[in-house]
Amino acid sequence: MIDTHIRDWLPSWVGRRTPETFRVRGTSSRVSRLAAQYDVEVDAALQRLWPKARIYHDREFTRDRADFLLVVRGRGVMIETKVKSDPGVFRGSTLPPLLDRLQRDGRRLVVLVNQGDPTPARDLITTKLGDKGRILVWSGPHHDADLHQAVEALLEQTSRHP
């Protein structure tokens, strides 16, 4: 006899994902795989650089919330990850909903791009967030010093009550 209840066979067909796994996002499967792997690497870097920090990962895909919230010494910085499949210019066309929300909330943001030239996006972030936003290319541990410097600079200016 064939099982006709879709709820019984669908999870085994598409595979179950635990809540601990990083979400797959993006429009192409290659970019989705790169994005998921990049999030894992960024999470490891945050844990390595701030071992006593609390790190929250937003597991739901939305354009107006950052991927991570890093809380260090009681102060928070939002971390947004962006993955490009090519080394070209990163314009930040997907950032405005997030920047608008953070501008209203008065929060700090670091955008990490895996490769490319982030200059146009830097201009966009500066226009919206001023000195509360940073963008940098981070593609591995050799960029940890840049990430540490950007986050610490934002933490120094962050008040507990924005």
Summarize the structure.
The chain is α/β, with parallel strands linked by helices and 162 residues long.
Characterize the structure shown.
The protein is of the alpha/beta class. It has a single domain, classed as Trna Endonuclease, Chain: A, domain 1 (3-Layer(aba) Sandwich), CATH 3.40.1350. Helices cover 40% and strands 17% of the residues. It is built from five helices and five strands, in the order ααβββαβαβα. The chain has a five-stranded mixed beta sheet, sandwiched between helices. β2 (68-72) and β3 (75-82) form a beta hairpin. α3 runs parallel beside α4. The radius of gyration is 18 Å and the shape is globular. The chain starts with 5 loop residues before the first helix and ends in a 5-residue tail after the last helix. The relative contact order is 0.13. The model is unreliable at 1-21 (pLDDT under 50).
Can you lay out the helices and strands and say which pair or pack?
Elements: H1 6-14, H2 29-49, E1 54-57, E2 68-72, E3 75-82, H3 96-105, E4 109-113, H4 119-129, E5 133-137, H5 144-157
Parallel strand pairs: 3-4, 4-5
Antiparallel strand pairs: 1-2, 2-3
Helix pairs in contact: 3-4
Protein name: Restriction endonuclease
Organism: Kribbella jejuensis
